[in-house]
Predict the structure.
Amino acid sequence: MNDGPMSDVHGLTPWIETLGTRDWRAVAEAHSALVAAGQEGVAAVLAGLAHADPRVRRGCAGFFDHHGTDACVPGLVRALLMDSVANVRREAVHSLACDRCKESPLQADAVPLLLDRIENDPSYKVRREAIFGLTRQAPDDRAHPVLRRVFADESEHPEVRKMARHVLRLLDPRFRAETDALARAHQAAPARV
């Protein structure tokens, strides 16, 4: 990440730095100002993904949840794969995976990136967000073996395993049938005294 001061892109640096605050009103005002700046605002937010302050980087990644376009994808992918701070990576995962808040869906195939984070990110919060992000994508059989591995092998973070099971039940009809059959068999078993 950039250790020096961020170069001021069209005088928008104060708005970029505001994205890193906890004041939601100030953040909303910054979003409005950056959107009003058009392409210059988007360029400034992309540059903000390399800001020295991880809170600003996270805020910039979060900006693209609502205002992301295909132009932001390479910057989000860099943040997703290379940022040293888990909260920045988690926010980048969400912004790449979730098209619900965007004016138009991103054209990038996010599934391989999500699967990579599920299997390789050291942060369980990033992995959990990536698993949930699969529910925001078109159903994709590439996710099933990865989610099955997580469900079978994850022991350190039960919430990751639970999320994998939940998403598998949503996305994989075979897994849903298997778990339903196990539940029925368990209910039918005689109670032990």
User: Anything to note?
Assistant: The radius of gyration is 20 Å. Residues 173-188 form the longest helix (16 residues).
